[in-house]
Amino acid sequence: CGQCTLVCPVGALIETPHWHEVLHTLDARRRVCAVQVAPATRVAISEEFGLKPGTVSTGRMINALRQLGFDYVFDSNFGADLTIMEEGTELLSRVGGKRSLPLFTSCCPAWVNWVEIQRPELLAHLSTSKSPQQMHGALTKRGPFAGTLGPAFAEGSDEPYVVSVMPCTAKKDEAVRPGMSDDIDHVLTTRELARMIRARGIAFGALPEDGSFDDPLGESTGAGQIFGASGGVMEAIARAISHLIGADHSPPIEWQELRGVNEGIKTAEIDGIGRVAVCNGIAAAQRLLQTATWRDEYVAIEVMACVGGCLGGGGEPKSLDPHILEKRMHAIYAIDQNAPRRRSFENEAVQQLYATELQAPNSPAARHLLHTSYAARHSRRSLLMRFLDAVDRRDA
Ligand code: SF4
């Protein structure tokens, strides 16, 4: 993907295929197999099978995943709702303590890699909350529901085999990061899922549209769904913040000023915390960081490396349609608009998780399972340049 080539210095821009291994594991039937699906995938997968761009294929896709052999089909949006509870609480704590502000979102691994490699002095600003993919994977493997997923993980492993389907090649890299490599077994892109469906001869377009996610890790709100679009994470935070503060007023559900795939930098004022910004693409983030005022002007900044957010990710179907991002974006907001619950704290399975296991967002138990850390590092290219410099100096 053109965007990822610009921003992804870790080799994750090259799509390393894993779908053969996943099919092999499914066919072997030796472990309970669970899959989670990102919000952008359920829209873009339609294009792989000749359906109109912007067609929502959630039910068909779930039925295809069950035919492929997955025992459980979960929704990454559950992880997104959880991310909002953790990241929103983290933001409030930083605002209260006046430290490491503005907070940068961290659910885009290409952006995290960029900070670690290009601007390590900004590491303290990154939210320590894991991305939805990683939170969901950690819960599926080691959370309180893991033991209920079935008796069949007897042979060889006491953990379910966990796959995620993402719009993103960089998510493959995220899943093997230090400290998070136990959360997910394999990451597939939307395109790889389409290859698997074709390889098994499943007539995707003819599948019934009635498939539904498994509970409890399949429950989600509209706020989780909009993570797939640029501005979605910040809008989801904006919907939840007054609840997290304990204020008695409800903020608006829809934040039009944070939406759109064409604007580079979008801003809004959130009651109770202050001004926030959304950087639509890594170039927009670079522009914002060149301004003299970004540290003082904003309390939180969302950065998604791909223009449009994940709906423009490098693992999505290629398209020559110049309006493809808008079409996918409208589909994502339509799913949100029709959702019975649209704010992350309304997710009953998330509430239940806190009530029974995690106590509260950012509690020690939540931090253990749902947070991570970052460190300065070098890209392969910079390591090569340093090596060549050293050789030059030695030979001089
Ligand atoms: Fe991946 Fe989304 Fe980041 Fe693009 S914006 S690199 S698709 S996480």
The average pLDDT score comes to: 91
Give the overall silhouette: globular
- The N- and C-terminal alpha carbons lie at a distance of 40 Å
CATH topology: Rossmann fold
Percent helix among the residues? 40-55%
Q: Report the uncertain regions.
A: 1-12
Count of the domains: 1
Give me the Rg, rounded.
20 Å
Number of contiguous helices: 17
Under CATH at level 1, the class stands as Alpha Beta
Family: Belongs to the complex I 75 kDa subunit family.
Protein name: [FeFe] hydrogenase, group A
Keywords: 4Fe-4S, Iron, Iron-sulfur, Metal-binding
Domain 4Fe-4S ferredoxin-type: 1-18
Core attributes:
Rossmann fold; alpha/beta; iron; disordered N terminus; 4-stranded parallel β-sheet; 4-stranded mixed β-sheet; [FeFe] hydrogenase, group A; binds iron/sulfur cluster; single chain; 396 residues
Describe this entry's structure for a reader.
This protein starts with a helix and ends with a helix. It has helices spanning 2-7, 19-28, 41-48, 58-68, 76-97, 109-118, 132-142, 170-174, 190-199, 222-225, 232-245, 282-290, 294-297, 324-337, 348-358, 364-370, 380-395; strands at 33-37, 72-75, 103-104, 161-166, 186-189, 265-270, 274-280, 300-304. It has 396 residues and is an alpha/beta fold. A 4-stranded parallel β-sheet has the order 2-1-4-5, with helices on both faces. The chain has a single domain (2-364, 378-385), classed as 3-Layer(aba) Sandwich (Rossmann fold), CATH 3.40.50. Residues 1-12 have low confidence and may be disordered. The chain binds iron/sulfur cluster. The site of iron/sulfur cluster (SF4) has 14 residues, from helix 6 and helix 8.
